[in-house]
C-alpha cells in the first residue's frame, strides 16, 4: 500500500533523507528506530505533506497514487494519519467541532454519508473510552492546556475516530507512563488489522512489547541501514545504535 | 430606527417600560436630565467631528433609565444610511443616561447602501453602581464613510462594557473614550475589526482614570486581509489622584496578506506611582503549524483558515452576552472574509 523508493529530501535546503526505501503492505506493523536527528520525523512529515519540506529525488506511491503530488488534506482523506511528535495547541478551535469536520471530510471523500451531530457524539464517546480521555476535553480548544500525555492520547483518539488505512505514529510513546503507554498501544492494536497498517517511530522497546511489530527498521543519517523482525528492537535496546553506525562505516 | 440621521417612527417597535424612557433625542430636549448631561462629556471643543455633530445633529436616541431598575432584554438602535442618488451626510446623536444601580444593554447597529457619510456620537452616563453593556456594530456599506465617538462617563462603582465591532465602510474612524470619574468603577473595552479590500479602519481609545480604585481592561483585535489598513491608537491616562488603578491594555492583530498594514500605538500616561498597568501589542500571521495540523486531519485549506480566523475573533465574540447580537456579528464576520471561507454549510 505504501512504497517509498530512494527518497531524498529535507528542510530549508538541508538534505536529511538520503535514499530511504520502505515497503508497507496492508495489515503490517513497521517500527522505525534510530538515533536523534537521524530523520525519522522528517520522513513522517514528508509523508504527511508538511509545508517547508522538499523532496529532491525518489518517489512515494500510496495505493498506486503519487503521494507526493497530493495536498496534506487529500492524503488524510485518502486514509493517512500522522500522530505528531509535538501536537500543536489551537485555542479557540473546539476539539469536537474540529474532529467532526475532519471526519466528515474523510467520509465524504470515501463516498460515505456525513455523520450528524448525534451520530458523531456517539462515536466520539465510544472512542474516548478507548483512550481513557474525559469528555470534558472535547469542549476545549484543540490540545489547549493539555498535558504532554493528554496530547498524545488525543492524537490516538483522533486516529481511532478517523479510522485511517495507514497510521504513522511519531514518538507517540515518548513521555508516557506505563499505563498511558498501554492505552496508546491498545488504541493502535484496535486499529491494526488486515486492512490497516501502522508505522510506529519510537526510541524504546517498551512500546513494542505491547504493540508487536512485524518489521523493525533502523534509520541512521537519513537511510534505513538495517531491517529485521521484532528481535532487532530488543537488540537495539541492549546495544544502542553505535554498532550499526560502525557497520555502515566499515561497509564504505 | 433612524434613516440618514432622522427618526423613522413608523419602523419602530417600542415596548413600554415603566422605568425607562426611550425617545427621539429631538423630543427629549426639554427634559431636565437632558440639559444636565447632553454634550457634557463628548469633547466638541477639541474634536471637530463631534462639534460638527453637535451643530448639525438632526436626531438620535435618548435613553433614560430610572434609578434602581433592571431592564430585561436589550435596546436596539438601528441606523440606516445612504439609499439616495446624492451622497448624504448624517449626524446621529445619542444620549444614554443610566440611573443609580440600574442595569441596561444597548446595541447600536450601523448599516446602509451606496455612498454616504455617517458621523455618530453617543454619550453614555453610568450613574453610581450602574451596569451598562454597550455594543456598537459598524457594518456600513463598502462605499460609506463612518466617523463615530462613544463617550462614556462613569460614576462611583459603575461597571461598563463597551464593545466596538467594525467590519464595514470604506473609511472608518471609531473612537471610544471613557472617564472613570468615580471611585471603584470598572470598565471593559472590547474591540474587533475585520477588514479587507482597501478598507481603512482607525480605532482610537482613551481611558481616563480620574479617581482611585478603578479597573480597566481593554482588548482590541484586528483581522486584516488584502490591502486593508488598520490603526489601533489607545491611550490610558492615570491621573495623580487615581491611586490603586488597575489597568491592562492589549491589542492583537492578525495579518492575512502581505499588503495589509496595521499601526499599533498603545500609550500609557501614568501620573501616579501606586498603580498596576500593563500594555502590549502583537502582530502575527495565521499559525502555519496549526494550519498544517488541521489539514493533516482532512480539513481543506480554506476551511482550516476560516477556523483559525474565527478562533482569533472568538475571544471577543464569545463573551458577548446578548445572543442575537452575538450570532449576527459572528455570521457577519464569516461573510467578511471572501475567498477564505468554506461553503456556507460548513460554517459553525
Ligand atoms: N526546521 C528545521 N530547519 C533545519 N533543520 C531542521 C529543522 N527541523 C529539523 N532539522 C534537522 O533535521 C535533522 C533531522 O531531524 P528529525 O526531526 O527528522 O530527526 P528525528 O530522527 O525525528 O530525531 P528525534 O529522535 O530527536 O525526534 C536534525 O539534524 C534536525 O536538527
Ligand atoms: Mg523526531
Features:
heterodimer, A: alpha/beta, six-stranded mixed beta sheet, four-stranded antiparallel beta sheet, 12 strands, 28% strand, B: 348 residues, alpha/beta, ten-stranded mixed beta sheet, 6 helices, 17% helix, globular, binds adenosine-5'-triphosphate, binds magnesium ion
Describe the overall structure.
The complex is a heterodimer of chains A (about 250) and B (about 350). With about 250 residues, chain A is an alpha/beta fold. Chain A has nine helices and twelve strands. Chain A has a six-stranded mixed beta sheet, with helices on both faces. Chain A has a four-stranded antiparallel beta sheet with strand order 2-1-4-5. In chain A, strand 1 and strand 2 form a beta hairpin. In chain A, helix 5 (about 150-160) runs parallel beside helix 6 (about 180-190). Chain B has about 350 residues and is α/β, with parallel strands linked by helices. Chain B has two domains: about 1-285, no CATH class; about 285-348, no CATH class. Helices cover about 15% and strands about 45% of the residues of chain B. The chains are: A alpha/beta (about 250), B alpha/beta (about 350). Magnesium ion (MG) binds near residues 41 and 85 of chain A. Magnesium ion binds near residues 40, 41, 85 and 170 of chain A.
Which term fits the overall shape of chain A?
Answer: globular
Write the element-wise H/E pattern of chain A from the N-terminal end onward: EEEHEEHEEHHEHEHEHEEHH
**Radius of gyration of chain B, taken over Cα atoms and rounded to an integer in Å:** 20 Å
- Inertia-based shape of chain B: globular
Task: State the distance separating the first and last CA atoms of chain A.
Answer: 32 Å
The stretches of 5 or more residues of chain A where confidence is low (pLDDT under 50) are none
Class from secondary-structure proportions of chain B: alpha/beta
Average pLDDT metric of chain A: 93
Helix and strand sequence of chain B: EEEHHHEEEEEEEEEEEEEEEEEHHH
Helicity level of chain B = 10-25%
Biggest sheet layout of chain A: 6 strands, mixed
The low-confidence parts of chain B are 338-348
End-to-end separation of chain B:
30 Å
Strand order, largest beta sheet of chain B? 2-1-5-8-10-12-14-16-18-20
Largest two-chain interface: A-B, 33 and 25 residues
Largest sheet of chain B: 10 strands, mixed
Amino acid at each position: 500500500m505504501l512504497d517509498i523508493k530512494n527518497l531524498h529530501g529535507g528542510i530549508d535546503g538541508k538534505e536529511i533523507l538520503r535514499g530511504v526505501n520502505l515497503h508497507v503492505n496492508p495489515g503490517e506493523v513497521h517500527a522505525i528506530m534510530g538515533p536523534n536527528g537521524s530523520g525519522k520525523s522528517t520522513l513522517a512529515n514528508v509523508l504527511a505533506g508538511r509545508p517547508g519540506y522538499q523532496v529532491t529525488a525518489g518517489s512515494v506511491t500510496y495505493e498506486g497514487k503519487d503521494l507526493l503530488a497530493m495536498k496534506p488534506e487529500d492524503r488524510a482523506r485518502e486514509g493517512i494519519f500522522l500522530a505528531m511528535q509535538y501536537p500543536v495547541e489551537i485555542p479557540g478551535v473546539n476539539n469536537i467541532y474540529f474532529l467532526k469536520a475532519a471526519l466528515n471530510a474523510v467520509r465524504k471523500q470515501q463516498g460515505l454519508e456525513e455523520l450528524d451531530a448525534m451520530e458523531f457524539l456517539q462515536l466520539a464517546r465510544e472512542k474516548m473510552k478507548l483512550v481513557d480521555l474525559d469528555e470534558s476535553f472535547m469542549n476545549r480548544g484543540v490540545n489547549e492546556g493539555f498535558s504532554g500525555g493528554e496530547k498524545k492520547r488525543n492524537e490516538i483518539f483522533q486516529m481511532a475516530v478517523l479510522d485511517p488505512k495507514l497510521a504513522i505514529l511519531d514518538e507517540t510513546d515518548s513521555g508516557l507512563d506505563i499505563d498511558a503507554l498501554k492505552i496508546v498501544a491498545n488504541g493502535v492494536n484496535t486499529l491494526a488489522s488486515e486492512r490497516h497498517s501502522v508505522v510506529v517511530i519510537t526510541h524504546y522497546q517498551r512500546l513494542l512489547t505491547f504493540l508487536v511489530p512485524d518489521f523493525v527498521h533502523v534509520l541512521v543519517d537519513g537511510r534505513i541501514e538495517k531491517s529485521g523482525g521484532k528481535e532487532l528492537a530488543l537488540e537495539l535496546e541492549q546495544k544502542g545504535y553505535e554498532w550499526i553506525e560502525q557497520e555502515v562505516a566499515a561497509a564504505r | 430606527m433612524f434613516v440618514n440621521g432622522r427618526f423613522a417612527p413608523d419602523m419602530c417597535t417600542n415596548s413600554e417600560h415603566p422605568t425607562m424612557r426611550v425617545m427621539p433625542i429631538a423630543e427629549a430636549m426639554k427634559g431636565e436630565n437632558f440639559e444636565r448631561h447632553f454634550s457634557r462629556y463628548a469633547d466638541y471643543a477639541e474634536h471637530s467631528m463631534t462639534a460638527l455633530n453637535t451643530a448639525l445633529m438632526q436626531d438620535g436616541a435618548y435613553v433614560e433609565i430610572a434609578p434602581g431598575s433592571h431592564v430585561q432584554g436589550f435596546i436596539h438602535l438601528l441606523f440606516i444610511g445612504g439609499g439616495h442618488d446624492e451622497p448624504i451626510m448624517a449626524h446621529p446623536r445619542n444620549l444614554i443616561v443610566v440611573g443609580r444601580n440600574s442595569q441596561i444593554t444597548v446595541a447600536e447597529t450601523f448599516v446602509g447602501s451606496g455612498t454616504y457619510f455617517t458621523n455618530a456620537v453617543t454619550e453614555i452616563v453610568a450613574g453610581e453602581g450602574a451596569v451598562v453593556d454597550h455594543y456598537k456594530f459598524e457594518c456600513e456599506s463598502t462605499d460609506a464613510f463612518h466617523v463615530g465617538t462613544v463617550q462614556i462617563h462613569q460614576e462611583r462603582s459603575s461597571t461598563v462594557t463597551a464593545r466596538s465591532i467594525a467590519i464595514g465602510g470604506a473609511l472608518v474612524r471609531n473612537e471610544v473614550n471613557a472617564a472613570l470619574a468615580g471611585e471603584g468603577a470598572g470598565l471593559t473595552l472590547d474591540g474587533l475589526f475585520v477588514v479587507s479590500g482597501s478598507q481603512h479602519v482607525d480605532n482610537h481609545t482613551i481611558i481616563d482614570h480620574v479617581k482611585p480604585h478603578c479597573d480597566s481592561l481593554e482588548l482590541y483585535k484586528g483581522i486584516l486581509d488584502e490591502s486593508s489598513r488598520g490603526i489601533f491608537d489607545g491611550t490610558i491616562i492615570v491621573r495623580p489622584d487615581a491611586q490603586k488603578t488597575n489597568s491592562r491594555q492589549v491589542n492583537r492583530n492578525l495579518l492575512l496578506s502581505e499588503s495589509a498594514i496595521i499601526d499599533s500605538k498603545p500609550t500609557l500616561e501614568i501620573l501616579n506611582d501606586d498603580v498596576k498597568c500593563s500594555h502590549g501589542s502583537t502582530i502575527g500571521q495565521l499559525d502555519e503549524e496549526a494550519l498544517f495540523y488541521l489539514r493533516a486531519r482532512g480539513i481543506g485549506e480554506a476551511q482550516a483558515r476560516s477556523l483559525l480566523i474565527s478562533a482569533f475573533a472568538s475571544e471577543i465574540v464569545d463573551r458577548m452576552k446578548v445572543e442575537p447580537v452575538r450570532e449576527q456579528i459572528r455570521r457577519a464576520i464569516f461573510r467578511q472574509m471572501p475567498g477564505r471561507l468554506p461553503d456556507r454549510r460548513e460554517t459553525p
